[in-house]
Amino acid sequence: MGACIWVVFCIMVHFIPINGLVVKSSNIQSVLHRHKREFKWNMMYVTENMSSVSPISIGKLSSSKFNRTALFILRGEGVDQGEKGIFTVNKLGDVFVHKTLDREKKAIYNLNVLAMDEMTRNLLEPETSFQVKVMDINDNEPKFDQNEYNVSFFEGPYTEAKVLTVHAADPDDPTIFGHAEVEYKIFAPKGFYIVETTGDIKFLGTLDRETNQTYKFIVQAKDMPKHSNTGFTSTATVIINLKDINDNKAKFTQSTYTFNVSESTAPGVNIGALLITDKDEPQNTNPQFNPTNLAGVFEIVEDEDLKNGKIILRKELDYETRSSYSFQIEVTETIVFPDKDDGVGFSKATVFINILDEDEPPVFSLKEYHFAIMENVDKGNIGKVNAIDPDTAKNQIRYSIKEDSVDSLGIDSNKGIISIRKLLDRETKAWHNFTIKATEINKDGTQGKESFASVHLKILDENDNPPELNGTTHLVVCEDSQPETVVATLSVTDKDEMTLDTRFTFHLKEENSNFTLVSNLDNTANIIAKYGGFRVNEDDILTLIISDNGNPPKSSTTTLTIHVCPCIDGDRMCEVASAQMGVSVQALLAILFCLLTILIITLLFLLRRKLKKEPLGSLGKGVGEIHEQLVSYDEEGGGEMDTNGYDVSVLSSAWQTGIRPRPESQTGPCLYATVQKPAIKQNMAIMIEVKKDEADHDKDGIPYDTLHIYGYEGQDSLAGSLSSINSSSCDSDLDYDFINEWGPRFKTLAELYGVDEHDDASMY
Ligand SMILES: *[C@@H]1O[C@H](CO)[C@@H](O)[C@H](O)[C@H]1NC(C)=O
Ligand SMILES: *[C@@H]1O[C@H](CO)[C@@H](O)[C@H](O)[C@H]1NC(C)=O
Ligand SMILES: *[C@@H]1O[C@H](CO)[C@@H](O)[C@H](O)[C@H]1NC(C)=O
Ligand SMILES: *[C@@H]1O[C@H](CO)[C@@H](O)[C@H](O)[C@H]1NC(C)=O
Ligand SMILES: *[C@@H]1O[C@H](CO)[C@@H](O)[C@H](O)[C@H]1NC(C)=O
Ligand SMILES: *[C@@H]1O[C@H](CO)[C@@H](O)[C@H](O)[C@H]1NC(C)=O
Ligand SMILES: *[C@@H]1O[C@H](CO)[C@@H](O)[C@H](O)[C@H]1NC(C)=O
Ligand SMILES: *[C@@H]1O[C@H](CO)[C@@H](O)[C@H](O)[C@H]1NC(C)=O
Ligand SMILES: [Ca+2]
């Protein structure tokens, strides 16, 4: 090596004597011009990477002006600029280099030199610049831009595809042949090649990701091309990752698939997967399933993640109907490149689905049973329900009624016959809705599955209820009612079923002279007053018969009481009898008890008075007191009309016993409360006559009957006294007509004393 460098050194280090030429030209010029003083060279050369123990002379500075030793002064790069101490010069002008130079670091050094006389220090040559040029040797290898090239590339068949370009740079002097020139080489699997000069890596052939997903190889860069024994090399790694393309068909992993499915599996459930295989990545796996003969029972759906074929159940299964299914299925896929069939997997498969038997609950022949039966029966059968075990075991079925509340019906537990146990009455219960339970009895006697069915039993109507009057039987009519007045509109209730054809007819058992019954032809009828103008307290009794048009027809008889009531401008002045009916028996008893108590107390009080006090002094006062008593007894009464309040029985009793009720001692009032009611009305009329007669002929006492009350009332009135003292039938020529003009309040009075149409028999 040392020898080699020396050779190079010998070649390179000697300076090129161009001064001769300069001299020459200066000689020619010297003829014409003043002689120019100058150094004889302006460039020196030094080879890089030269190293030696002693400084190496790289040239001599000589001047055309002087020819002796001088004092050379060197300045510039490598001397006093940049890295110092590289260059020195001696008195003879020899320039030395002291250090190893590197062209790749600094290729040219700019220097200045001047020469002075050693003795005089006179400037022999002015400062002149020159260059030291570092000569290149091939000491650098070409370097790749990256140590590792990592690229992705689509798989596929290629005739010529550029995969990537690699590049290496050589810092050596490109002007010198071969030093910086790069030549590429590749050490790669078959198919890859590199363009030597450009570094383009290309591929020819088929890249299959499924065979080899990544390729990793070395590329080399070398300088000094064409010189295989010299030059520097360097390498880099190339990694090629293949990207997937859909170039493999999806296939089934098996040629037959078998699944076991319970018959109770609900539709919509995934039964199982037809596994497929595809070497491509999932995004490039798009199988299409073409099944045949699915019979609408199954559906094949692609699994989104795994791309398998899912078998989805679409219909209910029944082991007893069909215990197995099978179908063919084909899988296809559209791919980018023609498939290279490697024989893996199956494009067609057969699927077998076995239905597994389940213990199912019994099945009724109907979900709902509807029966109908006429009412009023208490035995017999209604109908039959039927349930079977759908399983092959065909277990016995036991029937029962689920509801405990159903007691009028029963069921034969073996045959399912529903029978009547109690009388069925539509009016009590029109529908019997209940549930029947069917229970399987297993072969070992235990109870198995059960199921339910509902039964709707309709009880059909029979005309077994008479129509009845809807409303009160106590009717009221105003005494001054006009003819044709509607007293009441009668409507009907009938517990039996009423249809559009149901008709009710009304008629009276006996014709009535005052009222008629007129049908409205809409299942109602009106009671109409024939003439109008009734007499108070004359109740009419109508016997009403209501019939329906059922088969057989039913009818009812109702007694209607029509009560005549005084009315003022259409307002009834009496209480409607029906309203009193609302009072309970207890209340009535209580009231009676109260009345009795008051009666006894009053009696006792009056007895005391009778014993202690003097008899009533004057007639007016006595009558007034009596009246007070009467009023207090009968506040709830209806005035003179109220026979309960104004108990005339005293008269009757007096008459019956023959004792005159007007004693001299004026004890009369006590007797009012002690006597009983008269039994018969007619007796009353006669009795009153007798009484009146007695009174008329009594010269020394007030007549002791109720009529004297009016005598009192009339004391200060316009009417004067109405006392029966003057009310003999003989002097009935008195005109009481003016009472009629007093208004309704005195109507009763007017009637009593009226002279118009009534006779005296109506008076008490
Ligand atoms: C310098 O001396 C040499 C011989 O030693 C001679 O050839 C040359 O001509 C001289 N040059 C000058 C300028 O004196
Ligand atoms: C540069 O110099 C060193 C030391 O002297 C030597 O080992 C090396 O081979 C040289 N390089 C070249 C390219 O000559
Ligand atoms: C190459 O690049 C891919 C992504 O493009 C990365 O996944 C892989 O790890 C890289 N390989 C190396 C060796 O760096
Ligand atoms: C896949 O590539 C690697 C490295 O490039 C290589 O070692 C291997 O043999 C290749 N495999 C096949 C099957 O080509
Ligand atoms: C289906 O059931 C049969 C017996 O019933 C059994 O032999 C078989 O292994 C089952 N197959 C599957 C896929 O479970
Ligand atoms: C019984 O069932 C029938 C028919 O579904 C229905 O019309 C009726 O209202 C039901 N009766 C009762 C009490 O549930
Ligand atoms: C009976 O009369 C009442 C009151 O007038 C009425 O609300 C009801 O609907 C009647 N019933 C029938 C069955 O006509
Ligand atoms: C109905 O007429 C009869 C005579 O036909 C009569 O005696 C009776 O008082 C009348 N009834 C009414 C409430 O007026
Ligand atoms: Ca592919």
From TrEMBL:
The keyword Repeat applies. It is found in: Cell junction, Adherens junction; Cell membrane. Keywords: Calcium, Cell adhesion, Cell junction, Cell membrane, Cleavage on pair of basic residues, Glycoprotein, Membrane, Metal-binding, Repeat, Signal, Transmembrane, Transmembrane helix. Pfam families: CADH_Y-type_LIR, Cadherin. One of its GO terms (cellular component) is catenin complex. GO terms for molecular function: beta-catenin binding; cadherin binding; calcium ion binding; protein phosphatase binding. The chain crosses the membrane at residues 587-607. One of its GO terms (biological process) is cell morphogenesis. Residues 1-20 form the signal peptide. InterPro entries: Cadherin, Cadherin-like_dom, Cadherin-like_sf, Cadherin_CS, Cadherin_Y-type_LIR, Catenin-bd_sf. Residues 46-144, 145-252, 253-364, 365-469, 469-581 form the Cadherin domain. SMART domains: CA (SM00112). It is a single-pass type I membrane protein. It comes from the Eukaryota. PANTHER family: CADHERIN-23, CADHERIN-5. Cadherins are calcium-dependent cell adhesion proteins. This is Cadherin-5. It comes from Erpetoichthys calabaricus. The lineage of its organism: Eukaryota, Metazoa, Chordata, Craniata, Vertebrata.
